[in-house]
Amino acid sequence: MAASAAHGRIVSTVKSSLRKIAATLASLTWRDFSGSARARVAELLLDVFACAAEGRRADPYPDFIPGSDGDASLWFADTTRDPSHAALVNGTLAHHAELDDGNPRASLHGGVTIIPAALAVAETTGATGEALLAAIASGYSAAVACGRPLKNGIETHRLHAPSMVGCFGAAAAAARLFDADEDIMTGALALAGTLMPLGPFESFTRGASVKDLYGGYPAYIGVQAALLSRSGVHGPDELFESKRDGVGAFLGHAATPAFELDLDEVMHVELKPWSACRSVHATLTALEKLLPITVPITSVHVETYAFAAELSRDADA
Question: Are 37 and 264 in contact (CB under 8 A)?
């Protein structure tokens, strides 16, 4: 394995990148993460609970409680479900207000995919707090390691990257809490990539309510992938090596890029100041600063990145 461990980063450029990532994920401990990263995980936990509380206040899905009885709690509700469906409901609820955290390096909303999956499995297995936190940190690292090389290809096809790459993070977090070894972790990541949804952006631009599931469904897939791998179901280890079809098709025609597992990935996570897609945050902040001005404003010219502008045109059509 060609690798570098400098500054908490482990880089693999050899074949079967997924297995190399999985081997590291299965062996990490809480102490392998920096003090800053460990503190950041606690902040991200608080943030996603705040997002879920706002979603519950809006009460968009009073009857949205699929699944069988289990030991995993539905947040802000006096009921429990099996871990995969608890992750589905909690992630969907937390995504409703569009306040969830983001990582532009892989276009990831880890708070509503990784954390619901980790908490549901931790509650079911009776994991320690340290094991839970390590699983969450590992999930963020895994999601970006697997998702960052796919980002451009996913967006080229006008798909919603967070609903897709979040599956890898949720699977990694869940598998760790099931005490996965390298083989089971590899299987969980491969299954997450095999089963991940194709989230069309039309749900976003047309205001379809299924968009909320773009938070919860990857969490559900991640838990299911971990459970299936434990039971002996395996996905293809070389998921990223073939570019003819499947996940590898999003890599494009260039040589397979290095897959980088950053143990400080949570430090790249941004918290939203506004209940909206980050494409309009700068505009909203500017408008907020204009509020004390009493002179008439006849027009406002807004610039944003090309992908966001294209989505805006579609939404206005």
Answer: yes
Token look-up 């209940």 returns 275
For residue 3, give the 3-state DSSP assignment.
coil
Token pair 């499995």 is found at: 121
In terms of Cα–Cα distance, which of 267, 279, 270, 178 is closest to 229? 178
Q: Which residues contact 45 (CB under 8 A, 6 or more apart)?
A: 115, 136
125 vs 174: CA distance, rounded Å: 10
- Contact between 164 and 154 (Cβ < 8 Å): yes
pLDDT single digits (tens) 186-227: 999 999 999 999 888 888 777 788 888 999 999 999 999 999
Say what the pLDDT of residue 12 is: 44
Q: Which of 43-57, 154-168, 248-262 has the lowest mean pLDDT?
A: 248-262
DSSP string, 189-214: HHHHHHH----BTHHHHTT-GGGGHH
Could you tell me which residues are beta bridge partners of residue 11? 260
Euclidean distance between CA atoms 25 and 185, whole angstroms: 8
CB within 8 A of 195, min separation 6: which ones? 167, 221, 224, 225, 235
Q: What is the pTM of this model?
A: 0.87
Q: Token digits for 237?
A: 């280890």
Strand partners, 72: 81
d(CA 272, CA 80): 29
Backbone angles phi, psi at 60, to 5 degrees: -70, -25
Query: Exposed e or buried b for every residue in 16-47, given b needs 16+ CB within 10 A?
Result: bbbbbbbbbbbebebeebbeebbebbeebbeb
Lowest mean pLDDT among 159-173, 211-225, 235-249: 235-249
**Rounded distance between C-alpha atoms, residue 162 and residue 309, angstroms:** 19
Show Cβ contacts of residue 272 under 8 Å, excluding neighbours closer than 6 positions. Answer: 98, 99, 100, 101, 102, 278, 281
